[in-house]
Write a structure and sequence with these properties.
The protein is 15% helix and 21% strand. With 92 residues, it is of the alpha+beta class. It has a domain of 60 residues. It has a 4-stranded mixed sheet, with no helix packed on it. The longest helix is centred in the N-terminal third of the chain and has 14 residues. The protein is elongated, with a radius of gyration of 15 Å.
């Protein structure tokens, strides 16, 4: 017996509304974290679900200086967006 999702909330509703967040959590539990897309470090989503991932377009790789990041894949864990290669919080 499969899990049945209720229809998503009204698309005109703010995506941060509790109804949407409940729906997103169910989708995440059923289908996995998913890729949220590409963002600058400053614009990374502020309310993701632990385990979701994204791409920080100006995130810094090891050896890149402040303000010269060329982009890194990141995941959300323990209250921060973290770089896969180092597990450190992403910086620009």
């Amino acid at each position: 017996m499969g899990t049945k999702l209720s229809p998503p909330p009204d698309p005109r509703t703010d995506m941060t509304a509790p109804a949407w967040q409940t729906w997103f959590t169910l989708i995440f539990q059923l289908f996995g974290p998913g890729n949220l897309g590409a963002f600058t470090v400053a614009a990374l989503p502020t309310n993701p679900i632990a385990g979701q991932f994204a791409y920080a377009t100006n995130g810094r790789k090891v050896g890149e200086g402040a303000g010269s990041g060329t982009g890194v894949p990141v995941y959300y864990s323990n209250g921060a967006w973290r770089v896969f290669s180092t597990d450190a919080a992403v910086t620009a």
